[in-house]
Amino acid sequence: MFNDFKLTDNRPVYIQLKDYFKKMIMKGHLLEDQKLPSTRELSKLLSVSRNTVLTAYADLEQEGLIYAIKGKGNFVGKVDVSKTPSIKLDWKEKVNTATLLADELDLMKHGVRWEKGMISFNSIAPDEKLFDMENFKRAFLTRMSIEGDIVLNYGYAKGYKPLINYLLHYMEMKGIDISNKDILITNGFTEGLDILLSSLTKKSGRIICENPTHHTALKLFRLHGLEVHGIDMKDDGIDIDQVEKSLSQADFDFAYLIPSYHNPTGIVTSSEKRTKIMKLFSKYQIPIIEDGFNEELRYSGSHLAPLLTFAGSGNNVIYISSFSKILFPGLRVGWILADKELIHWLESMKRARTIHTSTLDQAVLFQYLHDGYFEKYLKKAKAVYKKKYELSLQACNQYIPLKRITGDGGLHLFIELEKEINTRTLLKKCYEKGVVFSPGDVFYTDGRGGNTFRLGFSRLNEEDIIQGIRIIGDTLNEELEK
Amino acid sequence: MFNDFKLTDNRPVYIQLKDYFKKMIMKGHLLEDQKLPSTRELSKLLSVSRNTVLTAYADLEQEGLIYAIKGKGNFVGKVDVSKTPSIKLDWKEKVNTATLLADELDLMKHGVRWEKGMISFNSIAPDEKLFDMENFKRAFLTRMSIEGDIVLNYGYAKGYKPLINYLLHYMEMKGIDISNKDILITNGFTEGLDILLSSLTKKSGRIICENPTHHTALKLFRLHGLEVHGIDMKDDGIDIDQVEKSLSQADFDFAYLIPSYHNPTGIVTSSEKRTKIMKLFSKYQIPIIEDGFNEELRYSGSHLAPLLTFAGSGNNVIYISSFSKILFPGLRVGWILADKELIHWLESMKRARTIHTSTLDQAVLFQYLHDGYFEKYLKKAKAVYKKKYELSLQACNQYIPLKRITGDGGLHLFIELEKEINTRTLLKKCYEKGVVFSPGDVFYTDGRGGNTFRLGFSRLNEEDIIQGIRIIGDTLNEELEK
């Protein structure tokens, strides 16, 4: 007996020994009141130190699995392992329709899978080769030494105060009037939007947004049962005449807009259009959720302020963003900047749903920002991404027989082909040649976009970018020749 | 001009200089096409290095706020700061009833506030003085050096694979049949429960649970519009006869149970009752959400397996837990252990709502667990908490004229006073004497519990525990004498 004990990994030996006994007891291989070998015997038998056995036995006793009798030794305790009759529920039948819809709209499950060695234009996540690990570690150690006990304990639902203050200042530098504003820190952009939808969905159940739009947002709109009213994109942003027409005809709970590096088209809404948008939505008293997505990734052109800047002291714009797409997506930190009163209401929603966002994530991010590493990193990253952007743009124009290409910066381009082309069919052919991209229809509110696709270039090297785009172009040309 | 520039904090100087110019431009103090001082002039004027000015100017140019003309210098760019007419929405009117309810049920907003210097029995969070900072730092640095790029980039909705595997093993050691199970990592227990409610609330809209029960769970039940059916607690757990009667009379979407260190009563459900519970709910095919809350904090007594262990290969128990209450609440990591099929459905809900839980939090927690620091920490913490527990129990019995006291371990005790005593009135008096606790009514599903309260002792030192309990007792005696 006990000679089947084996060290299986590099965890402490006493823990592995404890686990071994636990298993034996749980499975009924050791019976109640059965005497265990003495620590001396076992240590010899298993060639482990006696201390290891002592610690393991002490832990087992602590957990009530064994008991000791002075002078007599250790014995197996009473462990109820009686199993009740096993029943099988049909979970597909037990979960509700929202859950089935979430599964249906889950691109990670149903989208085209990227495989090793493939050239994938699917991602618009940052290139991990750029990660600034050393300064990140430094920021961690600095913050831990300043207030490690606060970093590791419960925080506030609104967020980690130093980070909130930093972000308020950061946003003020974009010309935003922060005097009547406050910030709620969320688990990335996605939780922020989900909380907003949970709070703002009210009377009409109808929202207005750009068409196409960010597919994660679109998924959430659908999961919240919203009627999504999409408005076409012009080269300088949303079609404002269509917006006016829609607002005059129906009621909307709110608008959702991505003025910079619009996802998926990459279009940057012009300054003139921003003013028009603000005037129009103010007139109809409709709140705007402004998605600040990748606003930092402007490679050229004049300065552009967020819609929230144009709102001045008005309180109808809710700005929501995160640094995830630029900095460290593994840290789930986003924020909502909005009117103080609204943040007051949202705070309770946040607390009810996730208590608060990881203090560790917030604290390290704060230190990293505060110490100026973000500025340095952004400069480096922008230089790399700009090059990839220009390369991608040039290659697309050179190799792909396209009808329209948009994207003024950021980490992706959006391509429209001739009407008769179906990009899902194209994707299938490209997949066979080891190239994948995001078919555009998933971004559309109304099933259109079958002739469009999105190209994310951030995580590819220059060689793969050119080769991938060339393959897409060649495949498309073959199709067109048929 | 420019002599009002001041260094305000310890951020890098060039960033503060950049911010200064940004503000001047945004506020219109510097006008379009206005020439800026040369780098040499400015460096002299502000007594900063010329490099600092060069970097600040370069950044401003990058952001489109200034432009350079070769041989002529730097000029203010075109910045549209036109404000649109300011409008004021009434957010209280714009948010929906769920949001107003979340605010109403928000104990942090409406509960009795703890003030510095007070003896607060409100918290059942861990004592931060016990935090094992050095090993936490070690775990961070180890994990970062192993796979820092993975830690900082996007992860999977289901969770960080090494942590999932660790937890599966950890739960298997509790006698759980993991062969048909899987794990979903969540942002703490709270998100886990919220996702479960979002997915399982279906036909009846009715749930069954212990009465009293965990107030955060109760809040979420109400926010999900569920009809909550509470069952009285006996000293060995839920009143099983009442459960049987309820199940035979109405349909329920699921049960929510806290078998160990039940919150708030601290009662541990006996092994015999666990078997009965399992048989009963299996008979009626009702899923059980088992809250594994603080299961690790058993100070004495024989071993007790989770309900999920009793379920054997059955799939009707959903186990949900976190180490937050023991380890580091600042890290928001919890998990759902359940049937593979159910986890498959929940995964899409998780992805839709928060993409995934912080990889950083998960990775550091994994390393900390893997290296055996958790076991060591738990031993230390248990010794401290056990002492506080025994002290609190003794002091309560000595000083408080109570009717019933429950709590077999964990970090809190629950006290029932004579029917005519209102613990909210008692709290007001105690508050004046610098002592606060949690009035018990917030834990009840049906407005009862006016004569009960919860005492959390984890974060208090021994002296304060005794003094605090004595003050409560004295105050109560004064009231009774009246």
Word description of this protein:
The structure is a homodimer of 482-residue chains. Chain A is α/β, with parallel strands linked by helices and 482 residues long. Chain A folds into three domains: 64 residues, Arc Repressor Mutant, subunit A (Orthogonal Bundle), CATH 1.10.10; 120 residues, Aspartate Aminotransferase, domain 1; 241 residues, Type I PLP-dependent aspartate aminotransferase-like (Major domain) (Aspartate Aminotransferase, domain 2, 3-Layer(aba) Sandwich), CATH 3.40.640. Chain A is built from 18 helices and 16 strands. In chain A, the strands form four sheets. Chain A has an eight-stranded mixed sheet, with helices on both faces. In chain A, strands 12-13-16-15 form a four-stranded antiparallel sheet, with helices on one face. A two-stranded antiparallel sheet of chain A has the order 1-2. In chain A, helix 10 links the parallel strand 5 and strand 6. In chain A, helix 11 packs parallel to helix 12. Chain A is globular. The N and C termini of chain A lie far apart (73 Å). At the A-B interface, helix 1, helix 4, helix 5, helix 7 and helix 9 of A face helix 1, helix 4, helix 5, helix 7 and helix 9 of B.
CATH C-level name of the largest domain in chain A: Alpha Beta
Number of helical segments of chain A?
Answer: 18
Radius of gyration of chain A: 28 Å
Mean pLDDT of chain A: 93
Report the largest inter-chain contact.
A-B, 135 and 134 residues
CATH architecture group name of the largest domain in chain A: 3-Layer(aba) Sandwich
Q: Structural class of chain A, please?
A: alpha/beta
Looking at how many chains there are and whether they match, the oligomeric state comes to homodimer
CATH topology of the largest domain in chain A: Aspartate Aminotransferase, domain 2
Largest sheet of chain A: 8 strands, mixed
How many discrete structural domains of chain A?
A: 3
What is the rounded distance between the termini of chain A? 73 Å
**Spatial order of strands in the largest sheet of chain A:** 4-11-10-9-8-5-6-7
Number of strands of chain A: 16
Helix % of chain A is 40-55%
* Spatial shape of chain A: globular
The low-confidence parts of chain A are: none
CATH superfamily of the largest domain in chain A: Type I PLP-dependent aspartate aminotransferase-like (Major domain)
Q: Hey, roughly how much beta strand do the residues of chain A contain?
A: 5-15%
Family (chains A, B): In the C-terminal section; belongs to the class-I pyridoxal-phosphate-dependent aminotransferase family.
GO molecular function (chains A, B): DNA binding; DNA-binding transcription factor activity; pyridoxal phosphate binding; transaminase activity
Pfam family, one (chains A, B): GntR
Cofactor (chains A, B): pyridoxal 5'-phosphate
